[in-house]
Amino acid sequence: MSIEINNESGVEVDEENIVRLAAHVLGEMGVNPLAEMSIMVVDENAMAELHEKWMGEPGPTDVLAFPMDELRPGGGARGDGDAPADPALLGDVVLCPQVAARQAEEAGHTTRDELELLCTHGILHLLGYDHAEPEEHKEMFGLQAQLLEAWQEVRDPR
To answer: Where are the coiled-coil regions (predicted)?
Structure first.
């Protein structure tokens, strides 16, 4: 996997941890090892601009995903049935650590945990998952929880 990370937020973030998490999620999802993606870490002003431009909503948000290829669950970079997965440029995940820090405090966990959750969420969007409908929401958030649980076992072995 080729995972590029660029921190333009002015906030110290454990970039190596985020890249390892992304590789773990992509691997667990059966994404072709030749797939590429990038992760941008931006400040609240940059995130607010992206949020307004692409989602039509004011203010910063926690995560945005910009898929490159038309991917749907079960196809594209993840393969389709017996067909091998194609290498692909997956797209970009954009994280805002300032928003993540506030959400982490509200949720009672660390900013690292929140950034991991948000990165996983963004990657699932790159892979074609969505949560607009109740069934989609159940599937995506269930998968997100499974991926994060597996990641925590890798990150913090007992």
So the answer is: none
Residue 75 lies in a domain: no
Give the Cα separation of 72 and 30 in Å (integer): 13
CA distance 97 to 42: 7
Does residue 131 have a known ligand-binding role? yes
Question: The CATH number of the domain where 56 resides is what?
Answer: 3.40.390.30
Are 91 and 126 in contact by the 8 Å Cβ rule? The answer is yes
- Structural domain including 135 reads 2-70+87-155
Q: What is the pLDDT of residues 46-102, one digit of tens each?
A: 999 999 999 999 999 999 999 985 544 444 454 454 444 556 789 999 999 999 999
Encoding tokens for residue 18? 């985020």
Q: Known binder of ligand: residue 121?
A: yes
Does residue 137 have a known ligand-binding role?
no
Measured between alpha carbons, how far is residue 56 from residues 41, 48, 50 in Å? 20, 10, 9
